[in-house]
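As described in the Methods, two query proteins were run sequentially through the folding procedure within a single session, without resetting any intermediate state between them. The first query and its resulting structure tokens are shown here.
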Amino acid sequence: MGMLEIKGLRKVFGAGTVDEHTALDGIDLDIERGQFVTVIGSNGAGKSTMLKLISGILTPYKGTVTVNGTIAPLIELGAGFDMELTARENIFLNGTLLGHSRKFMEEHFDEIVDFAELWDFLDVPLKNYSSGMQARIGFSIATMVRPDILIVDEILAVGDFKFQEKCKERMTQMLSAGTTLLMVSHSIEDIRRMCTHAAWIDHGELRQSGEVMEVTEAYVKGV
């Protein structure tokens, strides 16, 4: 459990039109259980598109993604939430979308709110939450139980420093327990401190993958 196999992954937006754009072209990547892999590259390189394809949010134009295990994706702020509902209501809504029963969410409700530190804002509509507060509740729900694979885009970057460190500590604990982590980040310092492996995407192609120090050194020299 917790393994990913990506073969010949290709994603084309607007295929057959004048606006056709190839976001990913022939990505091959194997991710083993318990690895903490960062996806790096410049803006528009295809990093977020790859995470959405792995999560099943997007469908590939060609190629396959084989997932062995359960996935908890944190791809975009607000995904899986209704902005008109309160935070309390959204906890149950998002839990349902992740496949959890209401009874299960009730049992873990206090744990979620404690971690997010949002007791004073539970009955406020999510549309009135800051982006950092939305990130808090999304991360808390996604990590209340250990998924086989946790996928995190750059949404944690909107949180304050204290909460970012709290999230990094939880991800480290999950890694130690065998969860596979896949994250997009632009912080080379954080990447080298936390991750075991890296995949460098450049203009939709996999430029290099392997041990985190080797790949990030090549990336820094190449940009």
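Immediately afterward, the second query was submitted; its sequence and tokens are:
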Amino acid sequence: MKVNQINTSYIIVFSTKLKAFFSLMKVRLSSLVVMSAFFGFLLADGDLLSYDFFLLIVGGVLVTGSANGFNQVIETKTDELMSRTQNRPMPSKVLTKGEAIVFCLLIGIIGSYFLWLINLKSLMLGLLAIVTYALIYTPLKKITPFSVFVGAIPGSIPPLLGYIAATNDFGLEPGILFIIQFFWQFPHFWALAWKLDEDYQKAGFRLLPTCRRDKKSDFQIML
């Protein structure tokens, strides 16, 4: 009886940890981001049955998940302050910071390796996305609304990455895909920031154009 109880408790702990790691990656968000890489690959006439396509999708999910995880590692204390993030793996104490860092490093390395197997340009874009999102955009959120501009860069890389994974070449077409997604992110993100402004204020995030919900921010978002 006791052995069964111990086994059951181990299964529960393992299941809880596994769910927490998936939550750390923001798997649903990562999958949506990688979908734009899929469309970039498709527009470049990439072969959807190829090994490169498999590497792009899996590597893209892992690299994006790594960036999302490192973002949460850095923002653990601020996540504790906001209603929408209090139940994330580290504020809720399901994962330790050490566990999260090791996991994010591991999936980041594997994902980067998969992108490198496609071509060197894909690897460089994957690494650029992690660095700009986790190490530049994340700390800037408390300093300046310009962080939204910086955050739009890694958010615009996936369609560019998908195109280059298929062609191994920069050019006008992937540049256009990057620009379209880059400019789309401003009204998209500011709409979320407007809705969640009270929560963001608790964490000291400066994300709206004027750092507050006022007519100037309203006008700039509309524009």
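The mean pLDDT is 89. We note this only descriptively and draw no conclusion about the first query from it.
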